[in-house]
């Protein structure tokens, strides 16, 4: 069976407080984010930014008023500390079962989730952690017929130029991920993530 490639779906900044994380991204990129929503299963909430080329961006934090139905958060938020930072990347596939079969076991099983009229399957480890510190992406498959969040977000005037992931096991990660996206660079090195954007105010970088 031919492997079906994945592509970048969206990027996520993690933070301890959603308002603070949103303000940080707005200051870095010079644009305003939009209200997002709540994720009852994992007790989180987010704000969103539409990007060019069918991408979007989210700032996500634990919701202090929510008790996660799963008993834990996701995106590594239970162990998050420090200032807001780029923490996760999410890759889209049209066959999540096949993508998971090739992925490391740490990626977790696909979970069926819904929010309003959105429906999707997404990989979440049993403890809500991030595989390879976040260097291996979360995998997502949007339900057939559902809209993509980027389709309803207003144009922010921002476009992702490049997303770089550094990790000591970058080569192994690449082999476990059928990625077909020229915007993404997986490079061997100490773990780090950096996203470069073209914005109305010029080139800006988040890390």
Shape: globular
Strand content: 35-45%
Largest sheet geometry: 8 strands, mixed
- Give the CA-CA distance, first to last residue: 37 Å
Order of helices and strands: EHEEEEHEEEEHEEE
How many H/I helical runs? 3
Strand order of the largest sheet: 2-3-4-1-5-8-7-6
The CATH superfamily label reads: 2,3-Dihydroxybiphenyl 1,2-Dioxygenase, domain 1
CATH architecture: Roll
Return residue spans where pLDDT drops below 50 for at least 5 consecutive residues.
none
Structural category is mainly beta
Average pLDDT taken over every residue: 95
What is the radius of gyration computed over CA atoms, rounded to a whole number of angstroms? 16 Å
CATH class: Alpha Beta
Assign a percent range to the helix content: 10-25%
According to CATH, what is the topology?
Answer: 2,3-Dihydroxybiphenyl 1,2-Dioxygenase, domain 1
- Tell me the number of structural domains: 1
Number of strands: 12
Describe the structure concisely for a colleague.
With 207 residues, the chain is mainly beta. 12% of the residues lie in helices and 39% in strands.
Plain-language structure description:
The chain has one domain: 2,3-Dihydroxybiphenyl 1,2-Dioxygenase, domain 1 (Roll). The radius of gyration is 16 Å and the shape is globular. It contains 3 helices and 12 strands; from the N terminus they run E-H-E-E-E-E-H-E-E-E-E-H-E-E-E. Helix content is 12%, strand content 39%. It has 207 residues and is mostly beta strands. The model has no long low-confidence stretch (mean pLDDT 95). The strands form 2 sheets. It has an 8-stranded mixed sheet. Strands 10-9-11-12 form a 4-stranded mixed sheet. This is Glyoxalase-like protein. Pfam families: Glyoxalase_3. It comes from Yoonia maricola.
